[in-house]
Amino acid sequence: MTRIALKKSLGQHHLVDPSLCRPLIDYLDSEGERVIEIGPGGGVLTRALLERGAEVWALEVDPEWAFELRRRIAEPGLRLAVADALDLAWEGVPTGCRVAGNLPFNVATPLIGRMLLSGWGVPKAGFLVQSEVADRLIAGPGSSDYGSLSVLVAVRARARRLGVVPRGRFRPPPRVDGAFVGFELIEPPLPRAELGAFARTVRAAFSLRRKTLRNSLASACGRPRADAAVEELGLGMRVRAEALAVEDFLRLHRWFAASTSSSL
After folding, report:
1. What's this model's pTM, rounded to 2 decimal places?
2. Is residue 34 within 8 Å of residue 96, measured between CB atoms?
3. Cβ pair 186, 156 in contact under 8 A
């Protein structure tokens, strides 16, 4: 078998055991459906999707591995492009198209965030990420893993952990285990056009994690508006962002949207 160097700069850690993909394959329910696969690498997940009857549109940023994948898998159900998934125009993804992939650490957060903000045609997605990223994606209020990404996930998807992948099942082995996380995308509890502004409000609230909510907001919009928002919403002057429920962030967003001053 061809041995192509795995590039540390691209965070390449390829799966070596196809049986581990089964929870994700079952979750996506992709028979007869189109799946955009991000970072197919050596093709373990690609082959599992094709065997389940999916049509796979794969995006691989590394030309060497794209060429090798085409050599390994010559099936007509695979369409392959050398492309950076961070440049994907989510607004143009066809309705009903699933998304899957083994995501490097430095790509997972921005890519999932863009899908949540703009991937309106996607009904389901599933990704293999580092275990600590999985913890952040599914965390709830009061958890040390709860942050702006957790809140954005909660308003756009029903997310759950599908399975754990031990670090020894990758080549080369990473420092931590991986985990599959599944997303069933839902309509957000606010107008689509406001989702970007909502995300900015949430990021501002978590911008100074060790500080109170009012101090975090003050860094983005000034002390008077921050204090007014926290006081008028009855959130408490000493509360921190990680203690707020999604409904509290929605109220906070609506307060800033209704404020006579410019929004966050």
Report:
1. 0.90
2. yes
3. yes
Query: What is the rounded distance in angstroms from the CA atom of residue 136 to the CA atom of residue 217?
Result: 21
Quick one: 234 exposed, middle or buried, by C-beta within 10 A (0-12, 13-18, 19+)?
exposed
SS3 at position 175 = coil
Here the tokens at position 35 are 């799946």
Q: How far is CA 225 from CA 58, 216, 230, in A?
A: 46, 12, 9
pLDDT of residue 204: 96
Phi-psi category of residue 8: left, alpha or beta, with phi > 0 → left and psi -120 to 50 → alpha:
alpha
Q: Quote the tokens at residue 110.
A: 């921005």
Three-state DSSP at 95 gives: coil
List of domains in the chain = 8-185 (3.40.50.150), 192-258 (1.10.8.100)
In the predicted model, what is the mean pLDDT of residues 160-186?
92
What is the DSSP annotation of 127-185?
EEEEHHHHHHHH--TT-TT--HHHHHHHHHEEEEEEEEE-GGGEES--SS-EEEEEEEE
What does the pLDDT read at residue 105? Answer: 86
Using the predicted structure, report yes or no on whether residue 262 has a pLDDT greater than 70. Answer: no
